[in-house]
């Protein structure tokens, strides 16, 4: 962590972060409104997360991340921009979903450039893979969505197959989605483009 990230973490953790517990949280009491709730899993340094929240004040955002430096960085963004529609949980995402998020209460999941776990023997660790996708589907409201972006073609193909096999989920498009203009470019995306990787986007909806 940089000194600035440490200062942000110490100064603003209590204000904008939700401690991990094994009890479900109520979004209405957390955000003080009934606006749609979008969960971003693994927000990295959080620059895109903050921008999306700032651009969409009529939606609530919950970012989940284990990378302390990223939490510190995003806390600074939230405080500077007064993003009352954004909160953070610093913990393992699967445990958060299993224990803190009620079923059928999430309007959308954002998963931008997750760890591709490139070696075949590690593919089972991928986030967008069953049974983890079953858990995501379980937490979504009807009509809710999963929006994933990756620069690893093998992961994109595998994720499309895994999501297609997940109960109650259906791709919004015949295969990969067109680039969504509202999504800011992330640091990982820029790195991928420099390596001439193809950016693939997937959008699945719960029926």
UniProtKB/TrEMBL annotation:
Substrate binds at residues 119, 151, 186-189. PROSITE patterns: SAM_MT_TRMB. One of its GO terms (cellular component) is tRNA methyltransferase complex. It catalyses: guanosine(46) in tRNA + S-adenosyl-L-methionine = N(7)-methylguanosine(46) in tRNA + S-adenosyl-L-homocysteine. Its EC number is 2.1.1.33. One of its GO terms (molecular function) is tRNA (guanine(46)-N7)-methyltransferase activity. InterPro entries: SAM-dependent_MTases_sf, tRNA_(Gua-N-7)_MeTrfase_Trmb, tRNA_methyltr_TrmB_bact. Pfam families: Methyltransf_4. Belongs to the class I-like SAM-binding methyltransferase superfamily. TrmB family. Catalyzes the formation of N(7)-methylguanine at position 46 (m7G46) in tRNA. NCBIfam families: tRNA (guanosine(46)-N7)-methyltransferase TrmB (TIGR00091). This is tRNA (guanine-N(7)-)-methyltransferase. The lineage of its organism: Bacteria, Pseudomonadati, Spirochaetota, Spirochaetia, Spirochaetales. The gene is trmB.
């Amino acid at each position: 962590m940089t000194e600035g990230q440490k200062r942000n973490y110490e100064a603003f953790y209590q204000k904008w972060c939700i401690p991990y517990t094994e009890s479900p949280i109520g979004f209405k009491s957390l955000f003080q409104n009934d606006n749609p709730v979008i969960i971003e899993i693994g927000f990295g340094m959080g620059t895109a997360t903050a921008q999306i929240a700032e651009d969409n004040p009529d939606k609530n955002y919950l970012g989940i991340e284990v990378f302390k430096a990223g939490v510190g960085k995003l806390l600074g963004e939230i405080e500077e921009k007064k993003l009352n529609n954004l909160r953070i949980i610093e913990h393992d995402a699967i445990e958060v979903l299993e224990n803190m998020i009620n079923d059928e209460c999430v309007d959308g999941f954002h998963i931008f450039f997750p760890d591709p776990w490139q070696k075949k023997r590690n593919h089972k660790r991928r986030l967008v893979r069953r049974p983890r996708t079953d858990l995501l589907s379980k937490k979504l409201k009807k009509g809710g969505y999963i929006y994933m972006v990756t620069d690893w073609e093998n992961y994109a193909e595998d994720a499309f197959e895994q999501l297609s096999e997940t109960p109650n989920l259906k791709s919004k498009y015949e295969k990969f989605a067109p680039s969504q203009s509202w999504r800011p470019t992330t640091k990982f995306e820029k790195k991928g483009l420099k390596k001439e990787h193809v950016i693939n986007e997937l959008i699945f909806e719960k029926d």
